[in-house]
Design brief:
Distance between the termini: 25 Å
Shape: globular
Structural class: alpha+beta
Number of domains: 2
Helix content: 25-40%
Length: 402
């Protein structure tokens, strides 16, 4: 089953750089505007490594990957990055307000090294498919730097919250790192190297299955690198582990907005749906909600999917409303040629009202148990079915493969 171990990670030296100016959101969440802002924040911002700027003059000997390797070498040599003194787990708490509410939550997890497992081993489970392009990019970065700069977001099951209790005890001490990000999320970290605590966490994690919440491309990149490397260190990668039974785990819905279709006929929706309260529909003139007709035979309409998959609102939206009613193919959805993905119902609605989109579909959040059941049965969900909030920051703790 799962093997989790402490490690001596790299961290920014707090006496040399202000941590709040050098960490970023995960690389795949960084827009062009965010990239520019991170570049301007500090010359040692981790964006220069995880998502460097390409140049028309780039060559095989001078490109985003070679520059990333040079930044890493220089920052280590000058002490900007320093190695943690002892093999440690890192307790990681995130205090945040749930978007569009006044509710404040604290998500409690820890960072360690997780052994890489092929999916076929039944230890690590994905819940979404990956694309070739991002994996090729991440593999080049890993080959050039031999370092993981981000942890992937892993879920485990601990209904008795035995590990959580230990994490809470550690968190009574003064933190080693504390930083607030641009979304006003407070990230607090404590390094723990006490042998009894390390042994307890390792023993508790040994019997666990792990589900990838965020980081599928990075995980599969690490598998590919492991397969071409002779390094024992490459058999592991840095992961942040959160208990699936934590009340603070938060999934936000990702809404769909549709544009550039020659014709949008909402009357066709009522072949499969009646008015209800499940999927919201926003047009320029009206807003209404849909429920599936109880007489529908979903097994006949989606014979390639499992029963658990067919129950998902996002699957029903994709297969029936987008594909059958509006004629948008699965490939078009992947290319985002007619469908865009938006966090926040107000933002999605505004795109329609302002004329940027023809129609918006508003979804409820996917439930954790739905994701878990689909992952454990070996199946996946449509892209952007889960938006775990907040994200795990990049640059807080690095894992050098040495």
């Amino acid at each position: 089953m799962a093997k989790v171990v402490p490690f001596r990670g790299l961290r920014y030296a707090s006496d040399k750089v202000p941590v709040e100016k050098v960490v970023t959101q995960p690389y795949d969440k960084i827009s062009k505007e965010m990239q520019e802002r991170y570049y301007a924040l500090h010359p040692n911002n981790i964006v220069r490594i995880v998502l460097g700027k390409a140049s028309p003059e780039d060559s095989p000997s001078n490109n985003v990957y070679t520059r990333a390797a040079k930044y890493l070498k220089d920052w280590r040599a000058t002490g900007i990055l320093e190695q943690v003194a002892e093999p440690s787990f890192c307790v990681y708490f995130q205090k945040f307000s749930v978007p569009d509410t006044n509710e404040v939550r604290v998500r409690k997890g820890f960072i360690g090294l997780g052994r890489l497992e092929d999916y076929a081993n039944g230890v690590v489970f994905p819940h979404e498919r990956t694309l070739t392009g991002p994996k090729k990019d991440r593999l080049e970065l890993l080959r050039h730097t031999r370092t993981h700069f981000e942890q992937i977001f892993m879920l485990y099951e601990d209904p008795e919250r035995r590990i959580d209790k230990i994490l809470e005890e550690v968190a009574e001490a003064k933190p080693d790192i504390q930083v607030e990000d641009e979304y006003q999320v407070e990230h607090t970290l404590w390094f723990v190297s006490e042998p009894k605590t390390l042994s307890f966490i390792q023993a508790e994690m040994e019997g666990k299955k792990l589900i990838i919440a965020d980081g599928h491309h990075r995980y599969e990149t690490a598998l590919a690198y492991r397969n071409e490397s002779s390094s024992d260190a490459a058999r592991f990668m840095a992961m942040t582990f959160f208990n699936m039974h934590s009340p603070a785990l938060t999934i936000l819905p990702t809404h769909r907005v549709v544009a550039n279709l020659p014709n949008v006929d909402t009357k066709s929706f009522f072949e499969f749906f009646t008015e209800g309260d499940t999927i919201g529909v926003v047009t320029k003139d009206t807003t209404f909600h849909l429920n599936l007709k109880p007489s529908l035979n979903l097994a006949r309409l989606m014979p390639d999917l499992s029963e658990n998959q067919r129950k998902l609102d996002v699957v029903i939206l994709h297969r029936l409303l987008l594909e059958k009613c509006l004629g948008i193919s699965e490939d078009a959805m992947k290319r985002e040629s007619h469908v865009a993905y938006v966090r926040g119902a107000e933002a999605a609605t505004e795109k329609v009202r302002s004329g940027q989109a023809q129609i918006a579909f508003l979804l409820k959040p996917t439930r954790l148990d739905q994701m878990r059941d689909i992952a454990y049965e070996g199946n996946v969900m449509p892209q952007k079915s889960t938006d775990f909030y907040p994200k795990v920051l990049s640059g807080l703790l690095l894992y050098p493969l040495e």
